[in-house]
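We were asked to recover a plausible sequence for a given structure. The inputs and outputs are reproduced exactly as logged, with field labels preserved.

PROBLEM: sequence recovery
POSITIONS: 414
GIVEN STRUCTURE:
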């Protein structure tokens, strides 16, 4: 054997040993699976710890929720009283009389006697128009009347002479008859002249304008020196009666039968006038009349109420809110309207007894002046009037004497 052959055999044996050695992959896969198992164990442990912490937190929260803190709330006692049933509507203040005075005589205005906004009495001086042309006409008519009156007197004297003469057969009957007719003609002329005098007297009176009613004068519309025409459309002065004054309002025709039935019993019904915001009562009056027909376009009927208006709170053409007292519910159980709560299906109130709140289902009736008539409560029981966002059935309540702001989102659902 040569040296080269020995080398080849050595290399061949070394290659055979490398090919017959066991592969190392089994030991490595075991390590991988062990690592994965340990990772899973760690993950499961972490999840178990998190779940346990969540359970503890939920239990603590539930325990904390089970211990409800007391709720501070204001309360009011239900009481017995009478509650009015009102029909509300929007009305317009309307004077009983409004006089828009225009000129009935032509001429120059010589004087304006009133001041703007002045209260005048019937017959007070308002405006003067130059009377001289009308005085001249009247004087002429009076002169004609005086002349014709004397002519009539002369004719009557002649008639008496003719009668005496005819009685002694001094004249014929024709002369007497003619004289009687002349007297009648002169009497007619005198009547005509008297009518002219009366007419001119009336025309002269138009030069001195006085207040036809008592009331308030409006803004000045004319000045001395202005020329006015009889029968013109320009208004010289407006006088509106304000004491008493009326309010005209409308009600739906469905309410008419109730009003008519009540009117037959009471003959009149009280009516209140309030401002636009319904915060201030302006006046109290009585229903005066009802219109004789329903407006088919709106399905409403007009009513008129009268007010003394001694303090001048009602002003012509002012818009007001009217409240017609239709009926009165007597001996009703009354609670503040704020204590009445709604949850969409029922009406309820929180009743506070021995410092604990309970939910009481009630039926709400008419409301007036912040009080509501209800059934389901007894007089003297305390009802909560605030803190509805915190109150629940069984809540402990601490009574507060100071007002607590209510929940702006509305009442709480029991």
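RECOVERED SEQUENCE:
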């Amino acid at each position: 054997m040569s040296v080269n052959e020995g080398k080849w055999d050595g290399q061949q044996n070394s290659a055979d040993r490398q090919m017959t050695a066991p592969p190392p992959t089994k030991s490595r896969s075991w390590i991988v699976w062990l690592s994965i198992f340990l990772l899973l164990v760690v993950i499961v442990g972490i999840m178990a710890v998190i779940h346990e912490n969540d359970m503890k937190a939920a239990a603590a929260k539930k325990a904390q929720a089970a211990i409800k803190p007391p709720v501070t709330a204001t309360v009011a006692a239900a009481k017995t009283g009478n509650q009015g049933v009102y029909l509300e509507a929007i009305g317009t203040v309307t004077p009983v009389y409004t006089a828009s005075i225009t000129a009935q005589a032509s001429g120059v205005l010589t004087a304006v006697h009133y001041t703007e906004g002045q209260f005048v009495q019937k017959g007070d001086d308002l405006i003067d128009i130059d009377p001289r042309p009308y005085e001249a006409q009247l004087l002429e008519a009076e002169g004609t009347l005086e002349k014709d009156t004397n002519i009539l007197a002369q004719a009557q004297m002649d008639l008496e002479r003719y009668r005496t003469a005819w009685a002694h057969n001094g004249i014929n009957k024709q002369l007497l008859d003619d004289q009687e007719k002349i007297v009648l003609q002169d009497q007619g002329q005198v009547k005509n002249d008297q009518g002219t005098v009366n007419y001119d007297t009336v025309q002269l009176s138009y030069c001195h304008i006085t207040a036809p009613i008592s009331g308030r004068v409006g803004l000045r519309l004319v000045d001395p020196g202005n020329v006015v025409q009889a029968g013109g459309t320009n208004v010289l002065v407006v006088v509106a009666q304000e004491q008493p004054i009326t309010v005209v309002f409308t009600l739906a025709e469905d309410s008419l039968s109730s009003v008519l039935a009540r009117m037959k019993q009471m003959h009149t019904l009280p009516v209140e006038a309030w401002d636009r915001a319904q915060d201030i009562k302006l006046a109290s009056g009585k229903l005066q009349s009802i219109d004789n027909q329903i407006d088919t376009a709106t399905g409403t009927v007009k009513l008129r109420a009268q007010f003394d208006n001694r303090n001048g709170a009602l002003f012509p053409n002012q818009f007001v809110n009217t409240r017609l007292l239709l009926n009165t519910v007597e001996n009703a159980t009354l609670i503040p309207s704020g204590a009445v709560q709604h949850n969409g299906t029922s009406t309820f109130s929180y009743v506070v007894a021995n410092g604990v709140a309970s939910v009481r289902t009630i039926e709400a009736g008419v409301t007036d002046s912040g009080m509501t008539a209800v059934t389901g409560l007894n007089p003297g029981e305390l009802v909560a009037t605030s803190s509805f966002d915190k109150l629940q059935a069984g809540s402990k309540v601490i009574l507060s004497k100071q007002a607590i702001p209510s929940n702006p989102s509305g009442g709480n659902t029991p």
